[in-house]
User: Fold this.
Amino acid sequence: MNENEQLWVTPPFHVSGTATTPVVLASPHSGRIYPDAFVNTSRQPLATLRGGEDSYVEELAAPAHALGPALLYAQFPRAYCDVNRAAWDMDPRMFDGPVPAFVKPTHRALSGLGSVPRIVADNRAIYRTRLPFTEAALRIRDCWMPYHKALAQLLQDCRAQHGMAVLLDLHSMPDALEAGAPDFVLGDRHGTSCSGRVISCAEKALQAQGFSTTRNLPYAGGYITQHYGRPQEGLHALQVEMRRSLYMNEDTRTKTEGFARLSAALAQMTLAILTDIKAPRP
Assistant:
């Protein structure tokens, strides 16, 4: 790979709206712009690289965004750079030389799913050869850092204007059989990233529309939920996982008739949270 080909020239994220409400909608994994050099030098075809992509989640969120919350989503794909990991949480073994001491891999990164992933779904290696570390550093600079700067600014602005901020971190998931294949998994890092009132409000709104939900199983929330969820400081973060088969064909990645219903449900959940925020506290 030519290192210079990896510079991200497309805006790495899209943001729409400002802090007019306390809620921020974000989709870190719905990016669908794959750099040619990345695809051409991968072991895997594009269809496989897209395996972990949260396709169309930013479109699902459009009606919720129309209620007033700002919407932020990544343009780059998760297989290229995963912003739901700490910046330097990556597997040192994927590089062709020594790495800086600030690279601190977690168990998840060592399994191949770091901020610059080594594998895609079902443990398939992305790269034919080891990468120069400078290439990973460019992705962090050009993708990871701008996304998090924008997200942090939105949350800061919301808290400044409304006294609190609620991040709804939106994802899609394959059928989670270990949890009984729920329609939604709501993750609050086991009660630490948002108030119980926020997650209960989301849960009730979804169940009232006929959707099944679980909490924190199998997804309790990733780096974003953990990092930004500080309820004691007025910052609440809730990870919302939606079952992909509710709105798209997972093989062809085409939308199904369920798309509109799921999109409306997400808007109703967001409205319920906004309404609850405005309600007087006892």
About this structure: The chain has nine helices and eleven strands. The longest strand covers residues 165-173.
